[in-house]
Amino acid sequence: MAAFSYATATGPLGAEGPYWDALLDGHLKLPRCRGCGAWHWPAVWRCGECGSWDHEWVERALTGTVFSHTRTHHAFAGTEAFDRPFTTVLVSLTEVPIRLIGVLEGSEEGLRIGAEVEGRIDRTRFGTHDIPALRWRLVA
Amino acid sequence: MINPSGLTAVAGIGYRQYKRGTAPLPERGVLVSAIVDACNDAGFDPALIDGFVSYGDDKNEPVRLMPDLGMKHLNWSAQVWGGGGGGVAGAFGLASAAILTGQARAVVVFRALVEGNSGRLSTAVMAHHLNDHMVSAGMVAPAQLCAMRAQRLFEHHGVPTSVCEELVRASYHHGSRNPEAVAFGHEYDAAEARTSRWIAEPFRLFDCSRENDGAGALLLVSSELARDLRKPPVTLLSVAQGAERGWGDLLENDREDLYPTAGFGAIRQRLYDQAGLTPADIDVVQLYENFSAQGVASLIDHGFCTYENVTEVVRFENLIADGGRLPVNTSGGNFAHGFVHGIGCAIEAIRVLRGETANPVAGAKTCLLAGGPGSPTVSSAIFGIG
């Protein structure tokens, strides 16, 4: 298993330690099984398809389409980092069969399921932590 | 293997509900009250209880109930996994399994929630789902996660938002006639609901369930024993819990077709087959609805309608006890009766079959209890009478 250094803000880390380290390093990396090539998200220690414990973390582009979205109005505790209302999008990545979640920035004109988006890596302040975070923007 | 259908029965029920923050006793005291109520209802000595089952991370460890109840032996204690209401119906399966294998004789299924003791339920539920991925995207509450799934149900699968209003309106219709309900005496005002504040789009305030203090307890025994007790037995005809591949707290990576559902496709067939019933045989439904769209998705999952004909089935006139073909949430449900993590839905399943409800369904012989929708582990049950 790859070594990692990220310490979470919210509880135990799963098998996705290298994901966080890559984000801290400015890259999106996702796990692919070296045994059968299956992408796994959430990350797994053992591939349930072929039984391999060996995964490679592959850099992928932050491009995709909106799978779904919600605009939050209520002042839920823990969302202080964002001005309300704010929109969260669930994005189907273009290159791999994985969805990632993040806050939408910029214009919301044309926001709909299927809309193309591109992302960048930022930080979300949560308590005393700065969590690596994805921000998405609609492609005009 | 034995088919457990009809071999165990609910013999007694007890339910205490209070406005949040107004329970007269701490949580365990309220729970003991509900358990003793259930025993009085059944004509059963509380000292003879020998098992307990709960769900949703209930904090009341059964052994601590023994002194107040005068119990000599605790033979069974278990809880369905998961922080949400997904396990409410499955709890009856655990109780039934204990009874049918001789490991316990009288098992109480319960849930207690006094938030001054246990904190806000939504926070406790979300603790199961909180992680840095979600928090970094501003997603910290069940309402937001369910809202995003609802958005896809509406926008991509074409379910009209109007069906949610029909469901909420039917709930308030029942609740307004139920003296125990938070909505008692309050008729649903469509304009008020439509202009109520946004929580997380597409949900407004009226799309969200309430949280109450309270406790519910249901005494399950063998059907044979139940026949000797005070009330007509309501038999457990079927119960199923579980999940399927592609579902279950996967950082929103659920299988594409499962994503907007409530997750019950995994158990639907087992549920109906165990009882030898079909959706057409169900006379009344107690539907756990955390949020309006998830309630509708649950009805679809359970085979009462489809994406295509949902507007024909989820109509106010069709959902009410007085004349509807599919009466739903005859107490008012989580929206309008009150919300003690869904145990009120189980209580109402028994009341409606006994004819003790505020909104009677004439001749009802079967009642489906749909557990918490969208939970990683879901469950449902079917009860019957006569």
TrEMBL record, chain A:
SUPFAM superfamilies noted in UniProt: Nucleic acid-binding proteins (SSF50249)
Domain ChsH2 rubredoxin-like zinc ribbon: 20-52
Domain spans labelled ChsH2 C-terminal OB-fold: 57-120
Organism domain of life: Bacteria
Protein's name in the database: OB-fold protein
Lineage: Bacteria, Pseudomonadati, Pseudomonadota, Alphaproteobacteria, Sphingomonadales
Automatic annotation (TrEMBL), chain B:
SUPFAM superfamilies reported in the protein's UniProt record: Thiolase-like
Domain Thiolase C-terminal span(s) in chain numbering: 255-373
Alphabetic keyword roster: Transferase
InterPro entries tied to this protein: Thiolase-like, Thiolase_C_2
CDD domains xrefs: SCP-x_thiolase
Signal sequence interval, chain numbering: none
Molecular function as annotated in GO: acyltransferase activity
Pfam families (alphabetical): Thiolase_C_1
Matching PANTHER family: ACETYL-COA C-ACETYLTRANSFERASE (PTHR42870), NON-SPECIFIC LIPID-TRANSFER PROTEIN-LIKE 2 (PTHR42870:SF1)
Name of the protein described by the UniProt record: Acetyl-CoA acetyltransferase
Native organism: Novosphingobium kunmingense
